[in-house]
Request: fold
Amino acid sequence: MSFQLSIDERQNEARITLSGELDAAAAPQFKDTIEKVASASPKRLVLFMDELAFLASAGLRVLIFARQKMGDVDIYVVGSKGPVLNTLKMSGFHQSVYLQDSYAT
Amino acid sequence: METLIVPASMDNLTSIRNYVKEAASAAGVSDEKLYQLQLAADEIATNIITYGYSGKGGEISVRGEIEDDALTITLEDSGPAFDPRERELPSEEDLSKPLEERAIGGLGIFLAVQGVDRFDYRREGGKNVNALTVFRHSAS
Reply:
């Protein structure tokens, strides 16, 4: 399943919905999107991962990039489950992002 | 299983993961182990493409072997000798660091090595041979 993303920029908040397989081939697209939304200096970055079926380290590195690019932005990871959630936890990312099942719209 | 040979390009990561899926399906391994094996193969292949061949291209061969108790996916490349097991992996301390203090490298091999039941490497005939094994039955 190919990687797809959509952006919803709101005041002080950037929402990105990720779906499909986020591997090293897809990571540059995600990184470009982070760079784009970073220009508005949002206070919150909300990543919806309900439909993300695969997450490789290249995708994790984009999260590190996001943090380093956006400074003290709060990163929310919403709806990640199964092995994707497991990868986030194995890598210790759950200590640096807010993991949530859902997010108020 | 028939060996899959693909040019070392990020565009072929999907083919490699699909090959692993077919092998896992034939071996009857659990979905969880299938995912871990796909992730490990994906990370090792990404490493070969990025560092082994330094983006200059080459070939990666992928072979699935089903044994009584295990499924092994072997990835081979002709890049310079590199034993992923010798790569310094992130420590517990590294993994608990906030993202802004994280080093960029080492996560992929960490996920590959941690995710499978056995990770072997050998240098053979001028090739790197990475063998990723999961046990077929969760009890073993």
